Amino acid sequence: MPEQNGSLVANAKRRMTTEPGATEEIWKEMVYDKDITNDKVIDAYKVWAEAYDKDFAVVHPNRAEHMAVYLDELVKQYGMKKENLKILDVAAGTGLVGEELKKRGFRIQNITALDLCPDMLNVARKKKVYSKLIQSPFGSTMPKGMTARSYDCVIMCGGFAAGHVPLSSLHTMARLCKEGGFIINSMTKQYADFVEEYKQIDKYVEELEEEGTWQIMFRRILQNYTKGNQGLVHAMRINKKETKGPIAGESDAIILKGEDLVEQTKKRMSTENGPTTEIWKEMVYDKDISNDKVIGAYKVWAEAYDKDFAVVHPNRARHMADFLLEMVEGAGMKKENLTILDVAAGTGLVGEELKKVGFNVDRVTALDMCPDMLEVADKKGVYGKLIQSPFGTTMPNGIKARSYDCVIMCGGFAAGHVPLASLHTMARICKKGGFLINSMTKQYADFVDEYKFIEQYMEELEEEGTWKIMYRRILEQYTKGNQGLVHGMRVL
Prior knowledge:
Elements: H1 7-16, H2 22-32, H3 38-59, H4 65-77, E1 87-90, H5 96-103, E2 111-115, H6 118-127, E3 132-135, E4 151-157, H7 169-176, E5 177-188, H8 191-194, H9 201-211, E6 214-226, E7 229-238, H10 261-270, H11 276-285, H12 291-312, H13 318-330, E8 340-343, H14 349-356, E9 364-368, H15 371-380, E10 385-388, E11 404-410, H16 422-429, E12 430-441, H17 444-447, H18 454-464, E13 467-479, E14 482-491
Parallel strand pairs: 1-2, 1-4, 2-3, 4-5, 8-9, 8-11, 9-10, 11-12
Antiparallel strand pairs: 5-7, 6-7, 12-14, 13-14
Helix pairs in contact: 1-2, 1-3, 2-3, 3-6, 4-5, 10-11, 10-12, 11-12, 12-15, 13-14
């Protein structure tokens, strides 16, 4: 079993002072602690950078050779001149992949390294296997200064590891790559077995192929990728941008700790005049609250949720119905015929408002992670179907691409709830010409790290041709003392 997270940096420092045994201790902590944070990983890399190559050879001999071999194989197959290709090496670290690319005849002047840790990049710089080095995080949005379709090949080796980069990075890699270019991702296979997000990697790769983002060239399993572990490698070729599927409208105060949240909820449920807003404060102000803790609270809060929420968010959902009605009537669609997916539907507040303005209840689907919240929604009779499922980078089981005329979400972007990449999933579920609406408390876009990039992400996907932004609206008194942020988009 791994040691406590706090020992990771200490182990890295111990390795640097030549104490025996630390090399594999650092590796074990990174491999087996699926909940390790990105900050902890970066701290370890900072002190480990100089010894990384030597140490890594112990657990991962010839780690990067296959990346250059496979890329060489692909570009030769399609008659490309490798010396002319611009390559982005994501999570480049100390430049192990760059060294192998050079050996295979790829031109150094055309290769860029990207990594979050400056100390690792300093080691890579000394090797002189890159023309440019970029110190930046990598995730749902493109790093600053990069533009879409700017590289012939985008590759990543080892970026999908606990505490490193999110699964949605694959879509970002695709957006950075030119049409006809190649994506290669290589990872330790066990991460796809026990890190929750990476369990969906095959599903995500297949969904984006079905969506038309890329063609899967191969999926390969490597033996002894690290000592006793297999490797998993996916290679894809970027397609010409083309939207598939049917057209929309056609038939067919005190900051409390997260660990107390469930107890606060139980207390509210057991007293006549309980601490209504205390539960809300924990969800609003604890930006690091976990999804499990949020779900635990919702389970016991479900029955009292509507009454309590009216205190901090009066008429919370009315704007969703009003804005959607405005969009569909402006497009000349018949509201009674439209299929609508309400993501993070909760107790059905949005469903109630949709019914009031004339949308057909039988054609509205509610999706939420918490069965207790959906049970409350079911009693209201405002949905034709209810789906209990998480929502994120991949589509929920049973839902197909281009299957709804409109996909909307109110309040899903809150600490501990759904990831920013959910917007792209919403777009993939929506028919061409259909509408998306996302509504959130604006302060989350100011202090939750991932949501700080919502405007950038919106604009990137507009530039990519995923959607056209119809509006961005600020709502006053969205909750007590807080503004709301609403985006409306039309899928292209």
